[in-house]
Amino acid sequence: MEARCELAIIGAGVVGCAVAEALARGGQPRGQEIWVLDGAEQAGTQISSRNSGVVHAGLYYPPGSRKARMCVEGNARLWTWAAAQGVGHRRTGKLVVACDEAQLAGLDPLLTNAAACGAMLDSVSLARARALEPELPATIRAALWSPRSGIVDAHELVRSLQNAAERRGVEFLFRAPVRALAAGDAGFLLDTERGPLLAERVVNAAGLGANALAAALGLERPLYFARGDYFRLRRPRPWRRLLYPVKAPGSASLGVHLTLELDGRSRLGPDLDWVDAPDDFDPSRGQRKHSEFLAAARRLLGPCEPEDLVYDGCGIRPKLVGPGAPLADFEIIEQPAGCWHLLGIESPGLTASLALAETVARAIARA
Predict the structure, then answer these.
(1) pTM of the full structure
(2) Which CATH class is domain 3-49+155-222+327-366?
């Protein structure tokens, strides 16, 4: 006979772990019998492990969209959680800079959009920008300041959510990829490599695999794979803030930007490269982008030698729309009754994870 539980969460990334913690804390389901299943050896080894760790403020998303609302709410929740749980983090703030006419034209629309989303973004003088980041190159012509942006240790965040969920009785099953998902009279049957599991309710937070599981239950959504590569700055640099160019209108990418790490190191990326497979991590593909990243580094940071950049891996983001299409929103869909699918959870998914979890928990409580 198959094992049984009241609620199964598929995926132990940051969102799946956040959902588990929120449900267990809220006493849902009533028996607190929640199982989290993942095909990896431990939590947070897929999309979450390749995240840049940036805590976004919610500047870029369409006002009123789930991405905008969840990012702003998630930002506040994440800072509070990280401080309370001892998760490594730093509220560095972020400078968005313009160095040509096209980027200058994008400053006011970005300010307007951020305000409409409830995100804090201020226009600052170049003198103020250089006080915040003294090494800004002379080519920078204007800047905006986002004080609520920063960085978090994504691995520690996942572990903290898993530990909190486990303390409240949630069971985590690893090396248990869900190969098939079907609805039946008694609930949902999950076919895993560790045997069948019958769950009364399901949360599908499987990241790159979520769309295929949703399709098994009749919910069809296209899926596009957006690879983002990174290059590390080899020499120590005195950067203290996140540094972003102004986003190009209509682009699916924020542009190559400077991200910081808690140990003081820094890297550039990610860019956006459409690929055909969710596991296209071939390093040679990224290594060929050295000249592109070098040019981006020089525009953003000033003088940079070729040997200053070394390839540093990539990640794959699940997107619901492909090249040239308007940006898609996060989707949280219940289909059929008792099964909630989280689809297209790309950036700002890490920042939004705690807000997404509360949204799912409320939906389950109402069901």
Answers:
(1) 0.95
(2) alpha beta
